[in-house]
Specification:
Layout: H1 2-15, E1 29-32, E2 61-64, H2 77-90, E3 93-102, E4 107-115, E5 119-124, E6 130-135, E7 138-143, E8 148-153, H3 159-163, H4 169-172, E9 174-180, E10 184-194, E11 197-206, E12 212-218, E13 224-233
Antiparallel strand pairs: 1-2, 3-4, 3-13, 4-5, 5-6, 6-7, 7-8, 9-10, 10-11, 11-12, 12-13
């Protein structure tokens, strides 16, 4: 049992190696039609001309479609990274369900909330009793069964990238390959500033929206974990009290 708790705890801490768009859509603009040209000068007038309508004419608007964004395949590597940065930066808050699996096949599920800048919360479903809360300064790993709380600096985890006010992957990571697949975009990265050494990260984005859908992390000791996000909600406001780290932890039975 103790070994299983250590594995679950390590799985939770490994998830700190990474976390996280609002859909980007250009609105169509409406412009009036140009005024109609009068009859050309010199044109003969009919014997019985139709009565002139002197009422002011109302120009009917016409919708002009916004220029379509270039296909991802047509973007340069630098431009694609800019688009990913913009998508992540635009994601000010969200909640989602997550599933998490480690290299041995152990899996856990739960709920994730992110409120940028600086705040994050993982609530693991039973039988796990773990919670992870970032309050803007520190990340707390809470074990409610043991009544313990371990604090980590946000600056020593890649969470600093997700929780920063403005996101620039080139500054936070050493970026590797970018693959554009049928329904997703994957980006490989290395974080040399994590606690204990370098971590290898693979980010998964939705191909159409560049919404972050999950990640895979291998920590400096070679321990890997994969996280998948579902039911992502970017519309509802989050209660800031969810991101308060409690002073004391009361063990649960």
């Amino acid at each position: 049992m103790a070994a299983m708790r250590r594995d679950a705890r390590r799985l939770a801490v490994a998830s700190l190696i990474f976390i996280l768009s609002a859909d980007l859509a250009a609105a169509a603009r409406k412009i009036p039609l140009p005024p109609r040209r009068p009859p050309e000068l010199g044109q003969s007038v009919p014997v019985n001309p139709a009565p002139l309508n002197l009422a002011p004419k109302v120009n009917e608007p016409v919708t002009e479609s916004a220029p379509s964004a270039p296909a991802l395949e047509d973007l340069s590597r630098e431009d694609l990274i800019v688009e990913i940065n913009n998508a992540l930066t635009s994601l000010k808050q969200f909640s989602a369900k997550f599933s998490q699996i480690d290299q041995s096949g152990q899996s856990v599920t739960g709920q994730l909330m992110v409120l940028r800048p600086g705040r994050l919360r993982f609530d693991y479903n039973p039988p796990s009793a773990l919670k992870i809360i970032a309050d803007g300064n520190n990340v707390a790993v809470i074990d409610q069964r043991l009544g313990t709380k371990d604090l980590y600096s946000i600056g020593l985890t890649p969470l600093k990238f997700l929780l920063s006010r403005s996101i620039d992957l080139n500054k936070e990571f050493k970026l590797g390959d970018i693959q554009i697949e049928k329904d997703r975009v994957t980006l490989e990265a290395e974080d040399k500033a994590t606690f204990g050494g370098s971590s290898q990260i693979v980010l998964n984005f939705d191909r159409k929206t560049l919404l972050l859908k999950g990640w895979a992390v291998t920590d400096p000791q070679g321990y890997s974990v994969t996280v998948k996000l579902t039911q992502i909600d970017t519309k509802h406001e989050l209660d800031q009290m969810n991101f308060v780290v409690p002073d004391t932890i009361t063990p649960i039975k």
